[in-house]
Amino acid sequence: xxxxxxxxxxxxxxxxxxxxxxxxxxxxxxxxxxxxxxxxxxxxxxxxxxxxxxxxxxxxxxxxxxxxxxxxxxxxxxxxxxxxxxxxxxxxxxxxxxxxxxxxxxxxxxxxxxxxxxxxxxxxxxxxxxxxxxxxxxxxxxxxxxxxxxxxxxxxxxxxxxxxxxxxxxxxxxxxxxxxxxxxxxxxxxxxxxxxxxxxxxxxxxxxxxxxxxxxxxxxxxxxxxxxxxxxxxxxxxxxxxxxxxxxxxxxxxxxxxxxxxxxxxxxxxxxxxxxxxxxxxxxxxxxxxxxxxxxxxxxxxxxxxxxxxxxxxxxxxxxxxxxxxx
Length: 327
Ligand SMILES: NC(=O)c1ccc[n+]([C@@H]2O[C@H](COP(=O)([O-])OP(=O)(O)OC[C@H]3O[C@@H](n4cnc5c(N)ncnc54)[C@H](OP(=O)(O)O)[C@@H]3O)[C@@H](O)[C@H]2O)c1
Fold this sequence. Notes:
There is one protein chain. The protein is of the alpha/beta class and 327 residues long. It has one domain (19-238, 287-318): Alpha-Beta Barrel (TIM Barrel), CATH 3.20.20.100. The chain has helices at residues 17-20, 48-60, 78-89, 119-133, 152-164, 178-190, 208-211, 214-221, 249-252, 263-278, 283-293, 307-313; strands at 21-23, 30-32, 34-37, 65-67, 99-104, 138-143, 168-174, 197-201, 224-228, 299-302. The strands form two sheets. Strands 3-4-5-6-7-8-9-10 form an eight-stranded parallel β-barrel, surrounded by four helices. Strands 1-2 form a two-stranded antiparallel sheet. Strand 1 (21-23) and strand 2 form a beta hairpin. The protein is globular.
């Protein structure tokens, strides 16, 4: 490796600690209010140096939590591989300052054992993830989605055993309906492995976790909550105010389609823009701050395709309070 490219983390990375960290539910873990997601912008379709610069910027500014999954890429596994390279070349000295999560639950490899929530799949997948990421353990392992067929107890016992074996320090639940989450909480807590955190989508355009009582349940039980896609994949920014720019997520990936840009959404975005400006903020900064202001939220799990976006978004930790204003 070229010595000049050796990464040394900023000495000031914890200068803003008071605003940056929040306790995750009733656990001993502090998480950054804004965390970095590796779903997009960390696959083979993004130049390595670009992804690398985003992670450096994040860690240099106190973002200690990186969120991965077995199937992030493209192709599947690529984001974990990229992270494994970063871990080896840049972050080896900082392992104990990082809080790394990964997940399993979606289709990962062919055949009956590469998907959903069986013990067989979860064990194999986590072993593969650890190898790709050059890690001995992850800080947090999630079941990525609800499996309506596998007995919940099988999935949950696998999570318990993964912790007992030291392959993960904590477990999390992603996108489970409230009834199943309640079963998970009881089962895991009875075995002294309470769920650390719930990962769900909460943003100004999608308030399901609030409407379904998931946020309240997490808050009552001392489970943290981290919101994925807090910017609705970029909709809640100024990205699409004047159409669909080339290079944007809407222009290139299937996960955000042009149908989302309805006249109602466009009108709402104009309203948000005016409101954000009245606060001296950008739409993205305010949209993230709104999520952080909701009861029971530990962190927003933001994506970024550039250092500039992340540097804009990180300002949300210092945003103005909302008071009683309905956004
Ligand atoms: N548990 C689950 O099932 C699940 C599901 C989805 C995501 N996640 C997690 O959540 C993380 C975040 O998801 P997400 O990427 O959808 O989050 P997001 O923060 O809602 O969207 C991020 C995208 O918005 C655009 N953007 C961000 N800041 C911007 C700014 N200041 N100005 C203009 N555009 C901006 C960028 O897209 P472009 O620049 O490319 O347009 C960026 O990649 C994922 O990486 C993953 O870790 C979990």
